[in-house]
Amino acid sequence: MDLLVGQLFTGLSTGSILLLAALGLSLTFGQMGVINMAHGEFIMAGCYTAYVTQQVVGDAGVSLLIALPVGFLVGGAMGLVLEWLLVRHLYQRPLDTLLVTFGVGLVLQQVARDVFGAPAVNVTVPEFLRGGVDLLGTAVPKTRLFILALAVVAVTVVALVLRFTAAGRRIRAVVGNRDLAETAGISSRAVDAGTFFIGSGLAGVAGVALTLIGSTSPTTGQSYLVDAFLVVVAGGMGRIKGAVVAAVALGTFQAVFETYSTASLAKVGVFVVIVVFLQLRPQGLFTLRTRSLA
Amino acid sequence: MPQRFTFHPRDLTRSLAATAAVTALALTSACGSRAGEETAAAESCVDTSGDTVKVGALNSLSGTMSISETTVRDAIYLAVDEINAAGGVQGKQIEIVAEDGASEPTVFAEKAEKLIREDCVAAVFGGWTSASRKAMLPVFEDNDSLLYYPVQYEGLEASENIFYTGATTNQQIIPALDYLAETGVKSLYLVGSDYVFPRTANAIINAYAADKGIEIVGEDYAQLGSVEFSTIVNQVSASGADAVFNTLNGDSNVAFFREYANVGLTAEQMPVMSVSIAEEEVGGIGIENIEGQLAAWNYYQTIESPANTTFVDAFKAEYGADRVTSDPMEAAYNSVYLWAATAEKAGSFDVADIQASADGVSFESPEGTVVIDGENHHVTKTARIGEIRADGLLYTVWESAGAIEPDPFLEGYEWAADLQVSE
Amino acid sequence: MSRFFATRAGVWSGFGAAALVLFGAAPLLLSGFRLGLLAQFLCYAIVAVGIGLAWGRGGMLTLGQGVFFGMGAYLMAMHMKMADAEFRNGHGAVPDFMELAGIRELPAYWVPFASPVFTIAMILVLPTGFAVLLGFAVFKRRVKGAYFAILSQALAGAFAILLIGQQSMGGFNGLSRFRYFFGYNLDDAVNQQMLYFIAAGVLLVVVAVALQLRRSRYGELLVAVRDAEERVRFLGYDAANIKVVAYAAAALFAAVAGAIFVPVVGIISPASIGIVPSIMFILGVAIGGRASLVGPVVGALAVAWAQTALSEQFPSAWTYAQGLLFIVVIALLPGGIASVAALTKRFQAKSATVEAAA
Amino acid sequence: MTTALTCTNIHVDFDGFKAVNGVDLTLDRGEVHFLIGPNGAGKTTLVDAVTGLAKYSGSVVKDGVELRGKKVHHIARRGIGRTFQTATVFEQLTVAQNLDIAAGAGRSPWSLLRRRTVLPDNVVAVLEQIGLAGQAQTPAGILAHGQKQWLEIGMLLVGDADVLLLDEPIAGMGHEERDTTGRLLHEIAETRAVAVVEHDMDFMRAFASRVTVLHAGAVLASGSVDEVSNDPRVQEVYLGASHEQEAIDAATA
Fold first, then answer.
1. Do D105 and C231 touch (CB under 8 A)?
2. How close does chain A come to B251, measured CA to CA in Å?
3. Which pLDDT belongs to residue C87?
4. Cβ contact (<8 Å) for D84 and A293?
5. Contact: D77, C236; criterion CB under 8 Å
6. CATH of the domain at D89
7. Residues of C in contact with A107 (CB under 8 A)
8. Architecture category of domain B173-297+385-419 in CATH
9. CATH class of A2-280
10. Per-residue pLDDT tens for A194-214?
């Protein structure tokens, strides 16, 4: 019984981690069709932001609160540079974007290795997040609750921004119909750059948060990237709602499957489920219908 | 009237046939010896006529394993520099040819072959993962050359062409179990990464536990590099085991210990015995998450002996005061000295002479005296249980009575009869 | 130049020159070790030809060729381990690595691989069949572009993880320590050269097959599907079938390359077939020129050579170089080296006309 | 004059938006049948439905065979060809290769895997018919805009389509080209049914055998050019005949 409650929470928690990692992708890949393989390295940049902030500030709690917005800016700034230097020249060639950003990811990993060294560095968990709280007889780590809450906040903010702000309406307009948006006087250049900034910034935030539970090393981002892409693929292009449902579903599936089998087989199982699922709904859970022939 | 195209050839059936014919011809003219026939052994090209002798250092300088393997390389260089400063081996200066194994077994195999056949080195030092050793083994056997392998491993291997200077299972796993049994542990939870070492180690632990009446309450494997330990820690926590035996590798340890501490498990309640966490790894995990936990090795930086003081001082002088020394580094350092001592004893760098003279060669190493076993090419080692303390270093809390003879096939343990394999 | 190579005489002389270099010059000039290395690189080149077909001509960016490469390699490795065990300990003996893993009974699915004929048949059929099934599953549902790329990449990851978990397939360590290749001693230098010849011969055959596929009506159709899939569908073709053929051919090439790779290198492990090795296959193809025939071969050889030559001196610099190559070549030179040749030719032609006019 | 295609009570629903709402349409061989109507009237969606791209309810029957539920390429193989608003040809391939591919949907795998030695007779004939015989070896990508449209029509002809659904075939053409295209359409229609989605009213007047006006997903009127332009409901939709051109400009913007 304890284990069951624990596992259900684990599913939710794994889902929230996936969601945090995938939310930025859902914007850049989903809304813009850009496959940013360096997204994982932006997450890693967030991790190291948390590390550096902690080295400077000292107190783990204060530095976490500072690192979250700073991580957003660091990730966002890297995203802007990437968009401006490379991605904007490749909007017509999505597959090439994938390979180019993979190259960027390789370079960033090596930069991290040369700057911070190859071994993992330690980001101390603040006192108020240590230990667990009792939930129906199971100890649930506070760090995971924090990440769950952060994921909820991030999704809510992104959804509100998209729905209610002028910038968000512009983004949705460009996604819906780029040409029409242009004729309506929306600069799709600025919108693209802005979307990339937000998406990459979210990766930075995810990185800061993930230092609470995982390691901070040059290869950290890699461990989240493929799963995050699968979330976006299963969730459907351009749909935050889809990403949320897919992340929680995949997280729960993984956690439950792992209880009755091994972690390795659970990973393989996730892949099989996604391929089968795409047979049923090739465009993902939720789709935007357009009349274009692409 | 149909219009003719300007394309010329019809199709390539004929060129295909021709290619196949050329290949077949080349093949029939090129067949060598078949199974069962003797193959002429590859001629060794080692040249020691000058005043230097070449050795290879083969470690991963790039890729995931570079974290660990670069430290081993530093130790190898330190030993070589010391030996050279003291006059070299048989009066010859040692010259290192360095190669990058790139964390990939195929690259290890390729580079080992290059070191032997192109660079003509007398011996190679390096390798870390069992996968890399398994990849290199046939290369060293086929070319009849020598590898000195410095990392603790899962045992069940003894090649004429490899010297194993790290611990085999009866010098690390079994003493760790003895220690746990002595401290009254009655039930164990096994957590490991999904590869050969943890699986073999856990097979041994299961056999040991069956014999000694210890209950194994769980056995879980995480994918290598996995950082999601919620499920496993939940299960560990729910199991109520007396202790955890941890054979996780690399970044997984970071995530595991964080999760472990976060659900409120402590070293007092449920100690974790780790066999892959050394001084280098503690920093990344965060001392607050792992303080008080146990490790099983043969060497710690904190060992108090003249030989170790010399080693640690020399290492810090060379590579910086903030650097730490660890078990695999020490074993690599020893391996160079053991090779040099064997060559001195044999009066030759020839592989056959080294193999013949190896038995009984000893070295006053930082961990104590180590002696080569000529039979299985492993070395005697003292087992030590270490506790991780607040300064991030490991301190000996228990050590075996004297050096333990290497027994890679566990022939001296009756309860391990089912694990033994025919070599 | 390229005109010439489009003629029959050109094709013949191209193949002739390649055969001369591979079968004549290389064995004479290279040491046994270097020749073995070249054989390994040729295996990568065989994979590259298939990627050139699927990606360059068919527009399917397959980031999971490691799966098919690995299938071919593991199937061959299974046979070689079986043959080895049989030779040492008689029929039905358990291969050495299984003993180490505590497996005392030969798993049933290993048994048929004692037969060389069965093994070769499986190498040709199994990966290709899997590619056909998977291809139908995704292409019929019109999963394409980035979706396909990411799925194929996830497939490579899942396959590697699956293998790591299988102790009866060697787990993380993979399969190694082979002694015989269809009865021939692998430590004999003559037999090592024979393996090189096989690799070289297979590469020429694969290039010839790819050439035929490109120049046939099918090849034109494939380009048509790449550039305007819907148009092809509205002309009455099932575009999925067309794509599946190229995808399966690429899978077959990769599987054959894997099967040769194992005796040449002496080990196959999950580290050689996962996500990163799979994407590295792409690098050579991109550099050489994805849409050209010989470009992927040249690119794959160049990248493998550069990796070997540079990584030992500058391990950190090589990683930067890899990353920068991806960025620079794909962003600025999507046609690869092959397009440089075409560009200079056009430039020369232009200056020639200018001169003629003057 | 025989009926080639009969559409009955076609409905297309995009997430609640009724793009086509109960359309009946008959295409006869020997006619150039124009489909007109303001933007969003459902013209292209109707073509999408008939060719299998959009899901619909209702019935489309060609030569006695129900097409609903068949896959795109099966419908195409039954002789229904379409073009797109922007001419879609294989730009990397030559004109002759484009036509050869279009002619070969029924080829056996074996002949596909071999090289083409001579051009099929029907390809040669169509090259003449669409006026591109001189450009047979030109890559389609560098053809003029109008030539691409002709090539796309030619691709349907060599594929033996006898129902041609053409989406704005004269978009971007000059006067002379329009007339050539119009004559070509009539030549084609001698043995086939041709439907043209078009905004250009002059072109429609000059070449339509029959006109169907769609509005808000339904048929507003159908008949000869005169009948339709005298229909008051049609005039209302187009804001009166005198303002016709402005209305069209607005509609095409």
1. no
2. 6
3. 86
4. yes
5. yes
6. 3.40.50.300
7. 319-320, 323-324, 327
8. 3-Layer(aba) Sandwich (3.40)
9. mainly alpha
10. 889 999 999 999 999 999 988
